[in-house]
Amino acid sequence: MVENQLKEALDSLKDTGVRITPQRHAILEYLIESMSHPTADDIYKALEGKFPNMSVATVYNNLRVFREVGLVKELTYGDASSRFDFVTTHHYHVICKSCGKIVDFHYPGLDEVEQLASHVTGFTVGNHRLEIYGVCPDCSGKEAH
Ligand SMILES: [Zn+2]
Ligand SMILES: [Zn+2]
What's the CA-to-centroid distance between 137 and ligand 1, angstroms? Predict the structure, then answer.
């Protein structure tokens, strides 16, 4: 699964003419494997042992390249540092108010909401964003079901 996703991501980079450096390879791999919506800083910390010459700025620049070709999404939820999400199928996020952890969940696209919004306002609707906030099992001391 991870390997297929990584291979597809690398192929689409090749198609868009983006050079695949060992760092880019490692960053993509980390994004796909971790599924934790890491910040540039998290990625830097995870990979600095492997790439001693890499800086946080390099990580960030690479993430920007991935974002421009549509491989990753930059998530901004009002806190200081953006988190990055490898783009797979459309999904929603539930966010812990206590520790900031973001977890994916899947739900059928809320297309009716878009249609309704468009109908009521006359807007041509492009997309929507939905976030659920709460307290994660680690923070509330409860086990996930
Ligand atoms: Zn939490
Ligand atoms: Zn996500």
Answer: 7
Give me the phi and psi of 72, to 5 degrees please.
-130, 160
pTM of the model: 0.71
96 CA to middle of ligand 1, Å? 5
Domains and CATH numbers, the chain: 2-86 (1.10.10.10), 92-140 (3.30.1490.190)
Query: pLDDT tens-digit profile of 26-35?
Result: 999 999 888 7
Q: Around Cβ 72, how many Cβ atoms within 10 Å?
A: 22
Ligand 2 centroid distance, CA of 40 (Å):
15
